[in-house]
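Morning!

As promised:
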Amino acid sequence: EVQLVQSGAEVKKPGESLKISCKGSGYSFTSYWIGWVRQMPGKGLEWMGIIYPGDSDTRYSPSFQGQVTISADKSISTAYLQWSSLKASDTAMYYCARMLGYCSSTSCHPNWFDPWGQGTLVTVSS
Amino acid sequence: EIVMTQSPATLSVSPGERATLSCRASQSVSSNLAWYQQKPGQAPRLLIYGASTRATGIPARFSGSGSGTEFTLTISSLQSEDFAVYYCQQYNNWPPPIMYTFGQGTKLEIK
């Protein structure tokens, strides 16, 4: 069974740093892109960025470029999302998801998100 | 940036009836569209990709249609477990840069 298991909820103060994780299992972690999606309280879904664990190729949404860092450690099948200085407006649920798409003989395009991790709730409050 | 607009924001339907949800793109995305279902307190779940292909394990009562800028998700006979929020997402990433956008969601509630 393909699974993405995310790290637990975090409560932080403004200005603190944070790194949350997403561990994949049940598939070849290095062969599929992983995406990160934000959902602010009571709101919709926003794409943040994607990473290809095979070579750490990373792409960011313009809205999140420079605000977060996405990384991966393929040796432990884990992707990360990190902040260097949190703000109250970073309070949200954060999801990781494997990305699927149409495949050529050599690679698969990152198109849709499936499956999703269970989410990590990040609360930033003084 | 391609903007995805879903309508209506809230749809009230009785169990057993048909529900039709709409998603419009600000420019053509061909058939590069997915639908997701999100229940309270849960992560989203993929329903449809390629505008009309059901994901693995998705019941046949869910169907997707459309191409270009107009898309529809139809649930043919609503079951109690179908009441949730539904999102569309475009992935028209050629030419680059890679960019994904979601609609704002349609809440499907029991009438």
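Chain A touches chain B at residues 35, 37, 44-47, 50, 59, 61, 95, 100-101, 109-119 (CB under 8 Å).

Hope this helps with the figure draft.
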